[in-house]
Amino acid sequence: MTHTTVAAYASPAPKAPLAKTTIPRRALGEHDILIEIKFAGICHSDIHQVNADWGVGTYPMVPGHEIAGVVAEVGSGVSKYALGDRVGVGCFVDSCRECENCKAGDEQYCTGAGGMYGTYNSRGRDGEPTYGGYSTHIVVDENYALRIPEGIELDVAAPLLCAGITLYSPLAHWNAGPGTKLAIIGLGGLGHMGVKIAHALGAEVTVLSQTLSKREDGLRLGADHYYATSDPATFEELAGRFDLILNTVSANLDLNAYLSLLRTDGTLVQIGGPEHPMEVAPFALIPGRKSLSGSMIGGIRETQEMLDFCAQHGIGSEIELIEATQINEAYERVQKSDVRYRFVIDASTI
Ligand SMILES: [Zn+2]
Ligand SMILES: [Zn+2]
């Protein structure tokens, strides 16, 4: 078998607008499945990578790691999926499978050479460049695909593959549930998923946003409280309040001010990835035995757990569905935070 050629939207060079093109997809290996992509979410990190904000990547670059579709073909040894199954692909398509983290199901923290194999802007096990979800089809090893349960539409499921798991994983790791006083900083693509999931887990959810402009949305999505961080009174009123704070903001914040909102033994988890370092005063952590931590997406097993949980609780992303020709415009709007709350590309328009 030889590779197949499929349609995709790619950026030909750093910062260049995306345009329609064709890309190769590898021939189906024994454990591979061919997915007909139905929907692909636009993650802010797609834009960072197209713009080479985190270093120059490989071009042409086909972004997209929030992929939902159906199985269109299976390799001879595939046992987990059958034709027509509803499946998703997230931020990675393989990993070393041998390191401590892979064995523990934390493939996202793979310590093998090169780490996890990114869904795009990376290399596959075959050494060839990987191309993401802004495309009509993708070939992936069955062990790195996820089952999308009945009960979630594929369009609102797509963003769960990155935004959903990015919030679910720390909520699960730090045992957010009934009795947990949780704050989420930022109500964007990530934050809005956190509000929905944390509310379904039973936590008491507070949104900390720059202004109150999205307050109604926040409360509708499941937040119990909503505060503006531009108001200094917020920090006085909420001092020592939270067990757990998830910071989804990708810009530098005064972490010390937010650490002051933790109660004893509380943890602030950094999820957003600002470009520049942030200063932390030791005495923001020492009194109260506070922790500052980080978290990145989730492993395959945990991502499946998240999808099952979301289906059970009727949770999908809030989306604006677009055609492929609107991708560049959508990128501009994401950079202005002008989206409620995730753009999703209808792959039938590619
Ligand atoms: Zn992402
Ligand atoms: Zn590994």
From TrEMBL:
Presence of keyword Acyltransferase: no
Keywords: Metal-binding, Oxidoreductase, Zinc
Domain annotation Enoyl reductase (ER): ranges: 16-345
Domain of life: Bacteria
Pfam families in the record: ADH_N, ADH_zinc_N
Catalytic reaction list: a primary alcohol + NADP(+) = an aldehyde + NADPH + H(+)
InterPro entries (alphabetical): ADH-like_C (IPR013149), ADH-like_N (IPR013154), ADH_Zn_CS (IPR002328), CAD-like (IPR047109), ER (IPR020843), GroES-like_sf (IPR011032), NAD(P)-bd_dom_sf (IPR036291)
Alphabetical list of Gene3D superfamilies matching this protein: Medium-chain alcohol dehydrogenases, catalytic domain, NAD(P)-binding Rossmann-like Domain
Annotated EC: 1.1.1.2
Cofactor(s), names only, from the UniProt record: Zn(2+)
Coiled-coil portions: none
GO MF, one annotated term: alcohol dehydrogenase (NADP+) activity
Stored SUPFAM superfamilies: GroES-like (SSF50129), NAD(P)-binding Rossmann-fold domains (SSF51735)
Keyword Transferase applies: no
PANTHER family reported in the protein's UniProt record: ALDEHYDE REDUCTASE
Family the entry assigns: Belongs to the zinc-containing alcohol dehydrogenase family.
Protein name: alcohol dehydrogenase (NADP(+))
